[in-house]
Structures
1.
Amino acid sequence: HHELLDGTGYPDGLRAGEISDIVRLTTIVDIYTALIEQRPYRVPFTHAKAFATMEKMEGKLDMHLLYAFRPVTFGAY
């Protein structure tokens, strides 16, 4: 769940076509969760700030899946 579309992720440095949809979605969920949860080194992001941050990751994240994920999370709060 740390592979990014541009090949800069890990552990295998996979690129877009090599990354399955489930891994793409898991990456989005993992990053989102990391942003909105309390961390010892920072306060949690708001849901809006988390998505704004992730939207800046175009080229790294699957934007179609990110935009499909957004209403699910905002609808839950």
2.
Amino acid sequence: MAMKMESDLNRFRKIVRGKIKKELRRFISSGDLVGRQGNKRITIPLPRIDIPHFSFGNREKGGVGQGDGEVGDTVGQGQPQPGQGQAGEGEGQHSLEVDVTLEELAQILGEELALPNIQSKGKENIEDKKYKYSGILKKGPESLRHFKRTFKEALRRSISSGDYDPDNPVIIPVKDDKRFRSYRITHEKVANAVIIYMMDVSGSMGDEQKEIVRLTAFWLDTWLSTQYNGLERRYIIHDATAREVDSDTFYKTKESGGTLISSAYKLALKLIEDGFNPMEWNIYLFHFSDGDNWSGNDTADCMKILETSLLPISNMFCYGQVESRYGSGQFLRDLHKHFGETNEGITTCQIKDRDAIMDALKIFLGKGR
């Protein structure tokens, strides 16, 4: 029975996984899924999954389910009762909510988009201590005292010495009874990563554009979190000036001023220099804008900062241009003109609407860097 239940559970998981894959593009473009995020888990509503149920036979016999009956009468279907209202035209929809871990969701994303595992840097420079309990010792700190083994030693001593009284089973351990956990330390090479998100919050970036950025960032986080043991996030907003903010402010702030993109790049460089040694950290830079910049001189400054400072120290620089009715889209053209469209260090993508987010993820993460 247990093996049968396990087989059924695995089959159900495969069905759920297949449904998620089938609906993945819709999930990616929907903000509802992000709102269902819990502690490393997400609740996903999956329509059109038939839930197993009991089905009764067709024989119509009298019974004792309702109405009169005698002891020993066979239980069968009752007489049909008239319903109320009119019949619908379509078949009923079964909806089921399932919990999926972020790690499993990332695996599904990776499989569907054929994403390569990231070849990270920094593993030779950072070591993490791992403590593994490996045995029992007679000496050690009280914080590692093994209660069960200590009690067994005290009980054994009490019985062998004749002090044990079954009617008054009081066991008091002495110093020689105490047993302690032993452990060994291993050093594991680890790789850490930081994502620095930058976004234009000038007047031309509306609520829908910011929602697209929020959804894109969620899926970027979901994938990159499975590739690194430690993942830090930093958020920079900019119009004519740039400042570091928390994630909530990042997605809700709206300004009305002009745009100087170089201010964000300069602040990102300062954050890296102050806290993220490029020899030890995998650095990911994601900039989202509608393509407007205040002047050609500032655009030239952006290209210089990227070429001489940011690109050499980062795993990748990704620019996502979110289409806006007020944005010119010029900055994307300027990047292509300066770096070309196939530069290894820089990845660009035009995100026209929510349906384009899945394609943007494939472009951003498809290089495996």
3.
Amino acid sequence: MTKSLSRSPRWIALAAVCAALVTVTAALPAGAAARQHPAPAALGVPERIDPAVLRASLGTPGDGLFAGAMARVGGRDGRWTGTMGAVSADPDASFRIGSVTKLFTSTVVLQLVAEGRLSLDTPVQRLLPGTLPAHWQPITVAQLISHTSGLPRAACWDPHAVYTPADLVRTVTECPEAGEPITGPDIPQVYNGVNYFLLGMVVEKVTHHSYAHEVSRRIVRPLGLRHTYVPAWGETALRAPALAPQLPPTDPWPWAEGGMVSDAPDLERFLGQLLRGRLLPPAQQKLLFELPRHAERGFTRGGVQYAKLPDGTEVYGKSGSYGGYTNGVFATRDLRRSLVYSLVPLTTDDREIAKRYLSIADAAF
């Protein structure tokens, strides 16, 4: 039995999250060269956090659309945390962060670039010989990070099988319906989790340590993130109290693409330190704010998700969805305001899910 990975429920929800948050960037000129956004002023950022508006943005249990919601708003203007519905009364409880994991992965890779262990122009075929078909054109580390690799998204996999990262990449490269990568001088930005499975494999090949070890050594321990970790292969239970009743994961082990667990305080601290430049040297730090050519999906050259909200506020961070949670962590570049949210949807209507988290973002920023 086979199934298209790009059509699995988690990937559909994740794609919807990303699309809704970055549609406001669609007005970018199609041929614009890579450019750096200046640090925005407090355009559109309210002076004070409004608890009533934030509480209302989480919704009510009676709407039948969400089992619960959590939001944590911070920054120089104040702080607010709250929950709604059948989730832990403790907004600091842990949850599966889904594709927010990609921010950790790209940070580790950029640190390795800064150390001279590899370069952004290094082809993944050189780092991982035999992983991709030999006749494919070279795909660079930079293209993987910014989702401009052109790799196909379709995959053939058995939902009852257990895959290693290499096995999962093979379900793409050997799937008849996947086709070959998009090639050319201006490859469009296509969000693709396979890019980050490959980056996780690159981390392990270059360092000779596990991906989990490098994330812990380089980010988790230095920042004192007490509830952030990469689960072991086959580890399904959360190690700390969960934000909501857990659902068993149904997709392949998402690992460096979307498998991490964290909580709101840890995510707020991680993104804050990343945007402050505490994790990367200047040459790599600037990539966090540069959009590549044809950045229709709103991901920077450093793998950060960028969006401009309707009132003009520019935010940076990442959204994600896995194991019953739909999450995000975003902040203004000057860190005047930050937001971590996690929703537990009952609905499968992507429009309703998007409406809820965009309502929370509007109230937060």
4.
Amino acid sequence: MTDYIRKILDTRVYDVAVNTPLDPMVRLSARLGCAVLLKREDLQPIFSFKIRGAYNKISQLSPAQRAAGVICASAGNHAQGVALSAQRLGIKATIVMPVTTPPIKVDAVRYWGGNAVLFGDTFDEASAHARQLQAEHGLTFVHPYDDPDVIAGQGTIGMEILQQHPDPIEAVFVPIGGGGLAAGVASFIKFLRPETKVIGVEPVDAASMKAAIAAGERVVLDRVGLFADGVAVRQAGAENFRICRELLDSVIVADTDEMCAAIKDIFEDTRVLSEPAGALALAGLKSYVAANPQRSGALVAINSGANLNFDRLRHVAERAEVGEAREILLGVTIPEQPGSYRRFIQTIGNHNITEFNYRYADQKQANVFVGLKLGGARSEKAELIGQLETLGYKVLDISADETAKLHIRYMVGGRAPPALRDEMILRFEFPERPGALLKFLDQMGPDWNITLFHYRNHGADYGRVLVGLQVPEADRASLSARLDALGYPYEDETINPAYQMFLNG
């Protein structure tokens, strides 16, 4: 450990990296009842901590190694760190990336002066090609985590944390992919403040370090989840495992929903959109708080990066509420008969509906996909499900079902059976407030069967709703009168070509 302390103190990372702030998360601290601090590595020139280790490694190369150039394999933040570091030092950098790498990442490497070489469909193929080029051209390979100089560069984050917060720190939470950041931070903090816990956090579907520590040796995961792509590593580094096994107090895991909720927490306190791997440590911190009600000292989470693809925001926003235990997703079976919707909505009570999907299936029962807002109490979900089951509803909790959340929720429905007659399709704008749906059902009364219903909260002041009603021709004037009295804007979409093509029998 002493060797690493010396290496950390001797780094030259500040030639290119910045000493990032340790910001209090005021809103989250108030909610959790403890002091939560966020180490802002999203403020680095490449929006990630990776610049530290890459620069420390490259800056220590010999003149001959510098003249030959450096190479790495990466499709993420390490690639940018190597490219920028080499540019600042006047060294040629080759970055091998899979051909499937999004153009935005390839462009970022080229912006920093790196020679982006696209090879293979997977990271393993790109890495093997990088090693081949290294041997052929005498290049220096810059490993993203399994290198003492890289570990020491990342360890400067631990040094800064202790300088910035001299008061007691109960625990520092560090995201783990290959383990370079965790090894470096733990080396420094455990040397100066052994009483401070250093806790690693991994995605539940990419927990290679946790598995290695449990097994007493490095293991190779069969596969890893890619939501937190910055830490999607199948095997922890050898040197990283040696250090983490000795110094980490524990390794905990977080799922996709918990990471999304942490991204939202960071945004609400800083107005920064963290990448999933960047919010991983905060997700672990929140789990720690829930499991440890008695605490002393501040809790620190490292926001390791903010390189988030814009098109992921919709998914993140949708999953954050489930991750915060503020939304529940249920599959509920109700009788297929007039009035059953109203009874079900009355049973839900004052819970705000966030989603409601249904399509007529048969004459006996209907399966409803429903999302409900919760107040945040962990017992509330069980109480609600118990209440519905007591009243005879068959309930399936699908809040943690990845297939349901990613796919099935958007596929509820299909073509109406031939027996369905007199269906009208109406598109509404409901006011976004509790009771709006019940008001609609009260106005419709039990006269017409609901055959389709789709609604999703979009964060606006009104909700977009598609409704199917079984209305005989003779009743349509009466329906129009009731809708006019309701006062909700609507359009008749019965002859809409998309409906005719995909939903009409």
